[in-house]
Design goal:
Helix content: over 70%
Strand content: under 5%
Domain HTH tetR-type: 14-74
Keywords: DNA-binding
Protein name: TetR/AcrR family transcriptional regulator
Number of strands: 0
Pfam family, one: TetR_N
DNA-binding region: 37-56
């Protein structure tokens, strides 16, 4: 956020925007996107509908802004990865950073998983697919064998599965996250060794 002469008001406005996003995502997850109204979001925030309109005119605007804000680290990761060599260290770092980006935006990805029809309608799904293609392009060696390309893609989806499927598996949440990351890193390591034998 840029510093302005009215820095305090800007900061407060930014916090309100964040609160709106958080509460809206909470309500979307609880009762579904379609069944949530702007009025309910305003009530949960204890603000007037007019105050909510100041920041967002529609539910779609709120959801798209949440998506853009929470997936910006993925966009940044893709940009960073494009400038890096196709080394094992780069691939492992991409997996680690993507793992962190997913963890930091877990409520959004849970919403996307549970509301796939809405995600498709709002075109958020297309944007996310584009970002996944971008990640795929920087993690795969163009001359890699098909099995090694699949290992790299599987590493990314292992991280996704870790967010959803592993919830039902017994165990400490932190240990489960670490295990998922270890498997994903192992997949890109195997793929790299297949492409660049010692």
């Amino acid at each position: 956020m840029s510093v302005t002469m009215d820095g305090t008001k800007q900061q407060r406005r930014g916090n309100t925007r964040q609160r709106i996003q958080d509460v809206a995502l909470e309500l979307f997850a609880e009762q579904g996107y379609e069944k949530t109204s702007l009025r309910e979001i305003a009530e949960r925030l204890d603000v007037t509908k007019a105050a909510l309109y100041y920041h967002f005119k529609t539910k779609e605007e709120i959801l798209v802004s949440v998506f853009e804000d929470l997936t910006r680290p993925i966009e940044d990761l893709i940009e960073w990865g494009k400038g890096q060599p196709h080394t094992l260290e780069t691939k492992q770092e991409i997996v680690r950073r993507y793992h962190k980006a997913l963890a930091d935006s877990e409520p959004l990805f849970r919403f996307m998983q549970e509301n796939q029809a809405t995600v498709r309608e709002l075109r958020i799904g297309d944007t996310f697919k584009d970002r996944m293609r971008g990640l795929r392009n920087i993690i795969i060696d163009p001359d890699a064998a098909l099995t090694d390309q699949i290992r790299c893609i599987s590493a990314l989806f292992t991280l996704h599965a870790g967010m959803f499927v592993m919830q039902d598996v017994e165990g400490d949440p932190q240990q489960k996250r670490e295990a998922v990351l270890e498997v994903a890193v192992d997949l890109v390591t195997q793929a790299h060794r297949g492409t660049h034998p010692a």
